[in-house]
Amino acid sequence: MNILGIFSGLLLMSSALAGAAQQHNSVVEASAKDKVRTVIYGSPLLSVEQTAQMYPFKLLQAALKASGGNYQLKPANLDMVQGRVLKEIELGNVDVYWSMTSLEREQRLLPVRIPLDKGLNGWRLLLLAADQADIAAGVHSLKGLKRLSFLQGHDWPDTEILRFNQLKVLTAPHPQQLFDMLARHRASAFPRSVIEIEQEQRHNRQGFVVEPDLVIHYPSAVYFFLNKTELQLAADLERGLHILRKNGQFDLLFQQRYGAAIKKARLDRRRIIELKNPLLPPDTPLADGSLWYQVPQSQPAAVQAQRGDPEMNKPGVTEPAAILPAKRE
């Protein structure tokens, strides 16, 4: 009886210990699941809500929330140029930032290949000094562009793209320096994307105008970039962005931020000069038309033909499928 009693006691103790261990593991798992992960994003000193970075920040915020992960965003609080932010991500000091893709950047960093700008960063209007408003008059082709000179940031992929197409480019580290150079006629024009030029023209007091007839286009994409070790964060971001695209929140944020600027740009009325982008990575999802914006065709095909359109390419579709771009040269 004593032996049976001892044996029964051992069984009860073993069962109790197993139950306690299981309960402990459940608590640990729940605690790990509930643990908040702080995500440091590259940021200017000003709040992103006060800058042109508001749209990608809102997408970042919404995508992380939609992913179901327990994330908390924190700004880096350092006023860094684009190249510096990306270097800090590579070093592991910053977790995420948004920037135009390139072969070199995708080799160093981990991209989330959903274009936040729907490719609009590659649609470039010319910002001009007001007293040189007609400097691009009569330019109809790449050959005509080669007679001009252009401004770009020294670490922007766009700089290499323009130079690859044999265009003359002058550079500076900070955007304000580029605006000052344009005001002093150091170059003919400052190509700016459709989604930024109107705001920049409005906020600069140096008397700039937007060239009314041309648009330069090259395929490009702005992605979220992370350190190559951040596989889980990247997967959550991608999942969250797909959820936003599916439920319409992505398009809603895009239209709220850029709809008026796109309408004002009148891309369907402009001569399109195509450039090659030698930096475009082979994994760019150009085949997925739902990811890309395409210029609407506001005029009947017969009218387009009268204008002598040599071809109508299709860089991608996010608008109705019947929409085609304007004249390309």
Count the E strands: 12
Intertermini distance: 100 Å
Subunit organisation of the chains? single chain
Query: What's the helix-strand series?
Result: HEHEHEHEEHEHEHEHEEEHHEH
Give the rounded overall mean pLDDT.
82
Residue windows where pLDDT falls under 50 for at least 5 positions:
26-32, 299-329
State the share of residues found in helices, binned by percent: 40-55%
Helix and strand composition category: alpha/beta
Using the CA coordinates, give the radius of gyration: 26 Å
Note the beta-strand portion: 15-25%
How many helix segments? Answer: 11
Q: What characterizes the major β-sheet?
A: 5 strands, mixed
Taken from the alpha-carbon principal axes, the silhouette is globular
SSE layout and pairing:
Blueprint: H1 2-34, E1 37-41, H2 54-67, E2 71-75, H3 82-91, E3 96-100, H4 103-108, E4 110-112, E5 123-129, H5 142-145, E6 149-153, H6 157-164, E7 168-172, H7 175-183, E8 190-193, H8 194-203, E9 208-210, E10 214-217, E11 222-226, H9 231-247, H10 249-265, E12 271-274, H11 301-306
Parallel strand pairs: 1-2, 6-7, 10-12
Antiparallel strand pairs: 3-11, 4-11, 5-8, 5-9, 5-10
Helix pairs in contact: 2-9, 8-10
Describe the protein.
With 329 residues, the chain is an alpha/beta fold. 41% of the residues lie in helices and 17% in strands. The protein has helices spanning 2-34, 54-67, 82-91, 103-108, 142-145, 157-164, 175-183, 194-203, 231-247, 249-265, 301-306, and strands at 37-41, 71-75, 96-100, 110-112, 123-129, 149-153, 168-172, 190-193, 208-210, 214-217, 222-226, 271-274. The strands form 4 sheets. Strands 5, 8, 9, 10 and 12 form a 5-stranded mixed β-sheet that branches. The chain has a 3-stranded antiparallel β-sheet with strand order 3-11-4, with helices on both faces. Strands 1-2 form a two-stranded parallel sheet. Helix 6 links the parallel strand 6 and strand 7 (168-172). The protein is globular and about 60 Å long. Residues 26-32 and 299-329 have low confidence and may be disordered.
